[in-house]
Design a protein that fits this description.
With about 625 residues, the protein is α/β, with parallel strands linked by helices. Helices cover about 40% and strands about 20% of the residues. It is built from 20 helices and 23 strands.
Length: about 625
């Protein structure tokens, strides 16, 4: 159905406002209730802005318990590409009576507030806000009298009102709705009708009294919208994963659910036979046990979990480290300790994962910044794991995993899988000897054989107890010393294989070090420091642990390096301190953000400004 036959054109959105316009530079916060249909409306808004070519980002702040609890969705549009969460809200859409008063009270003077006049307001509306009232519930009831449908459609009415206030292109609104309700024409038409109701009411009753506007740009060519967990799953499938052991836990569950969808589509023989195995275990310890067993047998295997699950995996993580068995773990971090805030984001597992398990253990970690890197690092993780014969942890977080991101399109892998030092029957015939845990090449990485190799030299005993270079049981001090020292040497070799750090060095004395999703806010943070306080900074984004040597060299060149951590204890700074020479420790300072909300630039700007004495 053509859009013109359903939705009128947006008109007159800016006619009554004579002040300075704010074009493509604002943030919206939508306050609704979980389970009210808000997610569909929010995604329609996000995709409409995306389709207009404007850089945009969306963050979903949802409750961890039941439907009906408060939820917030933020949309950031910025012509410079600063799409991380903004601390200040420019336009509040107040739809939830339970949080109405608090949502309104939390805004700075001059904030635009679009609110539901059908909500019984407990107090007075603030006169220092730009207020637009719309009877959203009543208008939704005109679309459908059904109580359940009316509740679901109410949020879509606000999209129509925003189309008038901001100047959203109406064809793009309908296109986004039809995509959201693909193959559900009746549902799509009902939602379009709800948008029409909101648009027509706003055109007839709302006089524009703010400068917030949107205008078409061309910044999203070749880009996609995708959740980080789906990107990671797709990367794992395209890089050869065949065994998945898992136990559900927020916010990692959709990594495996998405992987199952892709595997069912891409890893089935013409006769219908699956060439993969996905097994839901009884707990996280069993899940990683399956991964280790499959990795030992030669399969590319993975699991996905979060902090509490990683804690349960500690014993088997030590087994994999000591017996040198590959496997990949996607750790989608959330707020702890204990159950903590399971639907809030953090980088709180860095320190525990780096040294996961008892004894002298060091684990390899990768830190993707966005869905594109989640896709790419999924492949890197499997290659690294087999090359190094160890577990590799892909350290995502809830912000990356469960939010929709605008991402560059993925470049699908075209190079062969790196299986590492695997000896076949012909190799053993040629060399005539094999010691499973001996350093032959001087890089700390031994050779391995896989089950099914019929050569008489191929067999060895995999044990988590003391062993020597020949994989034989031993409690001799010299044998233990040899194994753990070689493991240390292998970890040093890993510095040459892990992804390099991203470095911007312009010779300034002050620098910022960040990792993972924190990177999204760093360009804006550096811009604020320069413009607002005259603080010029260099920048390094750490992408892996062990740290490449370039990270050590970068820190050595600077007087002060502010390490951005989304945790209370400055965990990345602590890991760096353990890795750096002692004379470099005092250069490291923490800039922290740990309230469970996605990182905003202003919080880090102010933390650095205070320590710089500006």
């Amino acid at each position: 159905m053509a859009v013109e036959s359903i939705l009128p054109k947006a008109q007159g959105a800016g006619e009554a406002y004579s002040g300075e316009p704010r074009i493509n530079d604002w943030s919206i916060q939508v306050a609704t209730a979980n389970g009210s249909g808000s997610q569909s409306a929010n995604l329609v808004l996000l995709r409409t802005i995306f389709n207009m070519g404007v850089p945009v980002g969306g963050k979903n702040l949802f409750p961890s318990n039941i439907a009906g609890m408060p939820t917030w969705f933020t949309v950031r549009a910025n012509h410079q590409g600063f799409t991380g969460r903004k601390k200040e809200v420019d336009l509040l859409v107040a739809m939830n009576p339970e949080t109405f008063e608090a949502d309104m009270a939390g805004q700075i003077p001059g904030t635009v507030m679009l609110y539901n006049t059908d909500i019984k307001v407990p107090g007075q509306l603030r006169e220092d806000l730009v207020l637009y009232g719309v009877p959203f519930t009543k208008l939704a009831g005109e679309v459908s009298p059904d109580v359940k449908l009316k509740k679901l459609l109410t949020n879509m009415v606000y999209v129509g009102a925003l189309a008038h206030l901001l100047g959203l292109e109406i064809p793009e609104v309908e296109k986004a709705i039809r995509r959201q309700f693909k193959n559900k024409e009746k549902a799509a038409n009902l939602n379009i009708e709800a948008v029409r109701k909101g648009l027509e009411y706003a055109q007839a009753n709302l006089v524009k009294r703010d400068g917030l506007r949107i205008e078409r740009m061309n910044q999203n060519g070749g880009k996609i919208i995708i959740e980080g967990n789906h990107a990671a799953a797709l990367g794992a499938v395209f890089n050869g994963v065949t065994v998945v052991g898992w136990y559900p836990i927020t916010p990692s569950t959709t990594v495996v659910e998405a992987a199952m969808e892709y595997l069912q589509e891409l890893r089935v023989e013409p006769d219908g036979k699956a060439t993969y195995a996905v097994v839901q275990a009884e707990d996280e310890l069993a899940a990683i046990g399956m991964v280790i067993g499959a990795g030992w047998a030669g399969a590319r295997a993975m699991t996905a979990t979060s902090g509490p699950g990683v804690s349960l995996m500690a014993e088997f993580a030590g087994l994999a480290y000591y017996t040198e068995v590959p496997g990949v773990i996607f750790n989608v971090q959330r707020v702890g300790p204990s159950t903590g805030l399971p639907t809030r984001t953090a980088q709180g597992d860095v320190l525990s994962t780096a040294f996961l398990s008892h004894g002298d253990t060091k684990q390899v970690m990768l830190f993707p910044r966005d869905p594109k890197e989640a896709f790419e690092m999924a492949g890197s993780a499997f290659d690294l794991s087999e090359r190094l014969q160890t577990l590799v942890f892909v350290m995502m977080d809830l912000d990356l995993g469960m939010n929709y991101w605008v991402s560059d399109a993925f470049v699908y892998p075209d190079k062969p899988l790196d299986r590492g030092k695997v000896l076949g029957k012909e190799d053993l015939d040629r060399i005539g000897s094999f010691d499973r845990y001996r350093d032959v090449d001087g890089d700390g990485i031994p050779y391995r054989t896989l089950p099914g190799n019929e050569h008489p030299l191929a067999a060895y005993f995999t044990r988590g107890s003391g062993h020597n270079a020949s994989a034989k049981y031993s409690e001799k001090p010299e044998d233990y010393h040899y194994i753990v020292e070689r493991l240390t040497h292998k970890f040093e070799t890993a510095r040459d294989y892990v992804p390099e750090a991203e470095i911007l060095d312009q010779g300034n004395k002050v620098a910022i070090l960040a990792y993972g999703t924190s990177d999204l806010a760093m360009a804006e943070c550096r811009d604020q420091l320069r413009k607002d306080y005259g603080i010029e900074t260099d920048y390094v984004r750490v992408r892996a642990y062990p740290f490449p040597r370039s990270v050590h060299e970068f820190i050595a060149r600077h007087d002060r390096v502010y390490v951005v951590d989304q945790n209370r204890d400055g965990q990345m700074r602590q890991v760096l301190t353990l890795d750096l020479p002692a004379d470099q420790h005092t250069k490291l300072r923490s800039a922290l953000h740990y309230d469970g909300l996605p990182l905003d630039a202003r919080s880090i700007t102010e933390a650095i400004r205070a320590q710089e004495g500006k």
